[in-house]
Amino acid sequence: MAKEVVVTADRIKNWRKFGRLLRLGLLILLVLLLIVYLVLKVVYHEGSFVVTLASNDMLESGLAMYESQYDRVGKRILKVNNLQFMDNISIKWLPENIDTESEGSHNGQNYIAYTFYIENQGSQTIDYWYEMFQEDVVKNVDEAVRIMIIRNGERTVYAKGNSIDREPEPDTIKFRENKEGSIILEQREGLKPGDTDHFTIVIWIEGDDPECIDALIGGEISLHMNITEEHMKIKEE
Description:
This protein has 237 residues and is an alpha+beta fold. The chain is 19% helix and 35% strand. The termini are far apart.
């Protein structure tokens, strides 16, 4: 009888030991999965980049924004299909025809690409501003982000100034620095009635940037592009 009790106690002790090891193994697995997730999630989440017209009055004046030439009805907001995960790449890896390959969202591996149009459907010549806002940044990932704006085939790349003296990174225009979070501000003058501007926005993490380091892993950034109109009187001939 005493022998049977000892055997049962040993079994219970072994089962408890196995249970502790199983719980420890599951905890280690959970931690590893979390690390993998953070490594993969370098930048961007759902809803992190949108384009908007500043007001409904702009639609009434004739300035129209749309993402397809087959549907030229002006919209207030254009929603971009964002990437859940993004790793660093080189600008050299971007397709040469990225500006003309498609309309709307046409993201590639590790970059966001979005093409849309601004058309003057009114009767007055229009000037307008396009402005990019940086609304939220996690883990300083903006140090290595690049934003390319292609307007009517002309390409301009923007980036944050380098971390040493805040001078522009090579072949880029430096982000603006202000409390409102406006990092890009450009004016488009003289959009005549019937004219259309073709835009493609490309966003990626530049692997050749010295600030592209492991500390950026798990970072996020939220961007918003705003189109704001101002009118220009037509000169009498």
